[in-house]
Fold each of these.
Amino acid sequence: MSNKDGGSSVTNLVFTNKSTQTRNILIGVAVVVGLVVVVTVITVPTVVVNSNKRDSSPLERAKSLMKEVPLVDGHNDLPWQLKTNFHNQLLTVDLRVSTKDKFGDYGHTDIPRLREGHVGAQFWASYMSCDSQYKDAARHAIEQIDVIKRYTKQYPDTFTFVTTAQGIWDAFNDGKIGCMIGVEGGHAIDSNLGLLRILYELGTRYMTITHSCNTPWADNWIAARDESEVEFQGLSQWGELVIKEMNRIGMLVDLSHVSFETMKDALRVATAPVIYSHSSAFALCEHHRNVPDDILQLVKENRGVVMVNFYDNYVCCYPSNNTECDLKVVANHLDYIKEKCGSDCVGFGADYDGVTTLPKGVEDVSTYPDVVAELITRGWSDEDIKKALGLNLIRALEEAEKVRDDMANVPPFDEPIAVTARGEENATCRYFP
């Protein structure tokens, strides 16, 4: 009995040990499986997200970035098309449908294509012909400001009028395109600093110092290639006052269209960042509307922004440039300015509806994502893409606003230009007190 009982105890002990071992093994396996499941649940979404980010096409990535940061374009001449084709009668044109057949050789801009192009904010140009200088330039400038404000109000679901850097963000976050005003041509102020201040009060946030003609205080871009156009070797002394007053009131100085010497003088005088609202790289296309390397270095020191123009004559330089003029050439200019001036220096200023011919692939405002996709393909970082899209321009405007605020106690510059310097030999078109 004792042997039998003893044998039974040993058997039970062995069975118990085996059961315990089995249970422990099962528990261990269960724990391991559980951990694997948990790790998988945590890891797989991350892997999927990273994989999606890695595998998304450059165009999809471009559109994603353009939903994070507003694309701010420096120059669009839609107001001029409305003036020349419709006499600014806005009820006779609908921007909610295509303008391709409405503006002759232009028709680059309408609301559907602005949306397709992910435009976040736009400087609309208040342009007046050089033929209006010494005559009614100021009237034309104000008329164009009026039409910009009117079509902004006409389409409130799409547009909103903004005058500040924060306003650009507010519009973007509200799903609207921020509308800003740039006056294209210093002859708009009729050599009067009071008019400059009034243009600012009307909403103007940059002024192009000249167009394709000298003002009575600054040389235009043609002077850089034709000595007979040189009058001031850049800015006159009174022209320097214009730059100072623009800084004092918070208006960006736009150096597109000016001579190289005018660029240098303005950069020497300016205490706020300057912009080039629609210019490209002179080294890649030797057109004197573009910015040469030595001046790009000055722009870098100034913390300014060069907003690349898409016009084929400014990026491809026909006929000397024999390469195909396409989107890649525009990207070359963005690349070059980023390399020479830094990633804080580059932006977009396509000049749509102000030029008649454009490179293949950038025919209208809908094509900005394609340009951004090309930059992504070339290895631009997300951070640098965002800077070029709009952060650089917004930062420049913020700094101009800070200079304005710092100069709040500085009285307006009010020295009049000499009557004899106004460029009118007989002064028959106006009354001088």
Amino acid sequence: MELKYAKGLKQWSRKWEDATNKSPECGSLEQVMKSMTAEANETADVHLDVRQKLSGAVLDTIKHWKNSNYQKTFVKWKQTVAANEGFEKVQRPWAKRFVKVEKAKKAYHLAARTLEQLKGQLDIYERDPMTTTDSLKKTEG
């Protein structure tokens, strides 16, 4: 992150330094632009120094601490695997209930849709002039 920010500052500084050198501006505006680009370069240098310091001793210290406090299996950290297994074990009853609820919701919505379709068909059947009362009673019953 520090490197990306420093590169961005350097690019910005070069862009405006070139623009300032090519422009016909003179006097205080030119001085201000040159001092802004110089400040951007200095800030970029500070960020590059911070990056070097962070990636040097601090990163090595963190890696050493991590290796001494966490055991690694083939690919994953042992503590992470244990935490995931514990979470899955605790969630198992809830997952079963969730599956049951989802099945019940699906069945309910299917039944509701079927009921609406049947009501529509019955309404059409009732409006049909060819329908007799006996056949209508059989359909409703």
